């Protein structure tokens, strides 16, 4: 094989990935801060007042990004879990484990901000509507994945059991996404879609996209930070962990 | 510019509670999460250090 190729398998080893992740975290924090600063500025100072919802609509700039991330992180988590299951790669399973709490947090924030938007606009914090209920199920799927993994002592068996739950739960993601099309719901339709021009002002759209990018970068930073802690916890018996400067000192 | 005064900005056209209730909880969460992970990391490093010291002592005593 040509030696110009990067050997990706090298990075599948926790010992190589641990310092690499440490180097990447500040980069993603910087990106998150930059996207967040511009995103918030657009959200509050540039985007105009909504004709029907007044200033209350500004919740969209945090509600939609958290909702997108809750679904996206689930897909990524299930992908890592599947890789861990099929290739028996322990770092992949650790990545799935590291993503779950951040995903659960995004699902919770999506529900919370949704409630705080629903109250003034619909007159209720909560309805058992298809979109809201399926997002609540997503939140429970994250909690179920985390609880199941935590309840099995052998980490490799925990990975396998968790992966099955994560993969079965994937079916819920398109249900959330299309729920507003398939059922009559109180929740409004998709704010942004690929096949039609967005029904909102460009500055609003950009505010939302930048906030989503900010949360995306934040989630990567969090997953990398958490996976480093998980690596140390699970590789604590190995020599390379004991040779680390932060441990030796 | 949408706002004539800071008070107007915080009032959010009467939707202050809902807008700041949403952004506030998110800000709180995005501070708490890295803090908690940082604590988890420090804890495992502390345990590992103790292990290394214990092993060293054991080696010296035998």
What is this structure, in a nutshell?
The complex is a heterodimer of chains A (249) and B (62). Chain A is mostly helical and 249 residues long.
In words, what does this structure look like?
The complex is a heterodimer of chains A (249) and B (62). Chain A is mainly alpha-helical and 249 residues long. Chain A has one domain (37-46, 58-233). Helix content of chain A is 74%, strand content 0%. Chain A contains 9 helices and no strands. Chain A has helices spanning 14-46, 60-87, 90-122, 130-151, 155-169, 172-182, 202-234, 239-243, 245-248. The longest helix of chain A has 33 residues, at 14-46. The two termini of chain A are 40 Å apart. The mean pLDDT of chain A is 91. With 62 residues, chain B is mainly α. Chain B has one domain. Chain B contains 2 helices and no strands. The model of chain B has no long low-confidence stretch (mean pLDDT 92). Chains A and B meet through helix 2, helix 3, helix 7 and helix 9 of A and helix 2 of B.
Encode the helix/strand succession of chain A as letters. Answer: HHHHHHHHH
Helix content of chain B: over 70%
Mind summarizing the main beta sheet of chain A? none
Q: What overall geometry of chain A do the principal axes of the alpha carbons give?
A: globular
Nearest-integer average pLDDT of chain B: 92
Number of helices of chain A: 9
Assembly status: heterodimer
The two chains with the largest interface, and their residue counts, are: A-B, 40 and 32 residues
Question: DSSP strand (E) fraction of chain A?
Answer: under 5%
Radius of gyration of chain A: 20 Å
Shape type of chain B: rod-shaped
Number of strands of chain A: 0
Number of domains of chain B: 1
What is the succession of H and E elements of chain B?
Answer: HH
Instruction: Give the integer mean of the pLDDT values of chain A.
Output: 91
Structural domain tally of chain A: 1
Unreliable runs of chain B = none
């Amino acid at each position: 094989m040509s030696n110009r190729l990067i050997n990706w398998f090298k990075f599948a080893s926790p010992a190589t990935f641990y310092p690499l992740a440490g180097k990447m975290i500040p980069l993603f924090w910087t990106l998150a801060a930059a996207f967040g600063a511009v995103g918030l500025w657009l959200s509050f100072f540039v985007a105009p007042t909504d004709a029907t919802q007044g200033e209350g609509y500004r919740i969209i700039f945090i509600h939609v990004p958290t909702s997108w991330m809750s679904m996206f992180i689930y897909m990524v988590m299930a992908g890592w879990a599947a890789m861990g299951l099929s290739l028996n790669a322990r770092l992949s399973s650790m990545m799935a484990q590291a993503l779950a709490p951040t995903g659960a947090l995004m699902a919770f924030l999506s529900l919370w901000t949704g409630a705080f938007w629903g109250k003034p606009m619909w007159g209720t914090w909560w309805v058992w509507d298809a979109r809201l209920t399926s997002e609540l199920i997503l939140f429970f799927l994250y909690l179920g994945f985390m609880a199941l993994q935590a309840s099995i002592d052998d980490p490799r068996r925990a990975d396998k059991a968790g992966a099955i739950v994560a993969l079965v739960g994937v079916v819920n993601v398109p249900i959330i996404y299309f729920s507003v099309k398939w059922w009559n719901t109180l929740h409004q339709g998709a704010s942004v879609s690929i096949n039609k021009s967005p029904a909102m002002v460009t500055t609003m759209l950009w505010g939302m996209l930048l906030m989503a990018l900010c949360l995306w970068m934040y989630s990567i930073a969090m997953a990398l930070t958490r996976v480093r802690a998980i690596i140390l916890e699970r590789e604590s018996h190995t020599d390379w962990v004991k040779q680390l400067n932060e441990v030796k000192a | 510019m949408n706002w004539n005064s800071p008070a107007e900005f915080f009032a959010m056209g009467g939707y202050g509670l809902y807008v700041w209730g949403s952004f506030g909880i998110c800000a709180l969460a995005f501070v708490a999460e890295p803090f908690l992970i940082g604590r988890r990391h420090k804890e495992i490093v502390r345990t590992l250090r103790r292990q290394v010291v214990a092993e060293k002592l054991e080696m010296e005593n035998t």
